[in-house]
Amino acid sequence: xxxxEHAITGADLDWDSAAATFDDEPDHGxxxxxxxxxxxxxxxxxxxxxxxxxxxxxxxxxxxSLLAAEQGHRVTGVDRSPAMVDLARAKLAGRDAVFxxxxxxxxxxxxxxxxxxxxxxxxxxxxxxGRVLRHWRGLLRPGGRFVLVEGVWDTGAGPAGxxxxxxxxxxxxxxxQVRVEHxxxxxxxxxxxxxxxxxxxxxTA
Length: 205
Hints:
Helices cover 32% and strands 27% of the residues. By secondary structure, the protein is an alpha/beta fold.
């Protein structure tokens, strides 16, 4: 399947099998203090100043959910992998957070319940991202925002991902303000130097 420009392989991965070692990647587990600080700083700049309801779609093991909860937000995480959800629940035990097993493209949550839809490296792996974004728009309260971290990667079998200009074009009919932050040169975010396209889009609905 494709996202309109690039071949997609992420949806075919066995995420349950990957769960046990998922956090070994520096930008997944955020175990390195410098990487963790880098993501916490970015997230603080992307999320509202006041405590709000954040929907973390494709939440994985909950690393970004934990940062959001530590910053005072109420978090709902959704992931299709039960193993990932189990790890996220353990990671955020005692926090103001709930985790659900479900499809990120059509999460099992109500409409207009959230102030933020937070997604990192998920949209690229979903078919028909325009349709998915329209559905996610309905989950936001008036004035809510998208925080979408995406990119384009060389998987070895060819490129995968969604370019920034493609994503901003899809968001244009759905959001009044769209801001792109390029992240490729922010080495602490990834725990290493990267040469591919990585970016965040913050869009106010």
